[in-house]
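Q: What structure does this chain adopt?
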Amino acid sequence: MASRSPSNDPWAEPTPTGRAGKKAAKASAKAAKPTKTRWYKQIAQVYQMVAKQQPLIWLWLALIVIGMEGAAVLFGAFVWKGRIGYMAFLAAPMALLVCTMFLARRAEAVAYARIEDQPGATASALGTIRRGWTIEQEPVAADPRSMDMVFRAVGRPGVVLIGEGKSPGRIKGMLKKERQRVARVAPGVAIHELTVGRGDGQVPLPKLVRKLKRLRPSLSRAALAEVNRRLASIGGMKLPVPKGIDPLKARPDRKALRGR
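A:
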């Protein structure tokens, strides 16, 4: 067996061996492992985030607890007589569950309110979809001046094009062009067009994911895989080529390559 060569650094601390070495290895592995945040700490963090935007959130949570506990006490006093304490005990975890669900909804609303008017907010909302959809993280079309964008999502309902921006007329034209590109490579596939916003006929950002999930499926899994393969061939947004440069006629500078 080959023996370990001693360290060349004379100032290095000796490596512990035996039980001390094993304990040191376990301690270092435990320190390297990321610590998981407890569920109650996560709830506290979410509450602090929501309370900054909605200071009266504590009042709503208190009303939920008081209302559910009060209903349980009344039920134990008049319906199931003699079971007031038992019903109040059963209502406590139910009240905690309802408060957690209510707090999660408020946190989601606060998160959407923060990003709603920012460019690329649609991509952040689509990123919350876990399965069943293929989401393009980068826009498939964009106007660099107005920051109007078009995003694409593919799922069992077909291809969904989502427009985002402050110019409804320009977004409509961008959606039309992208629709033609998709129809060229995937004929017969259902194509849905949505525009994110608060205007007439637009979908608010908090309701975008719910809108996508409510679309009726029209593709089988095999057809969905084929559509994704075809759309991958057209790629995403094409970057503009600087004026005066023809990439098809470009030639390398051979003198520069030879060092002259």
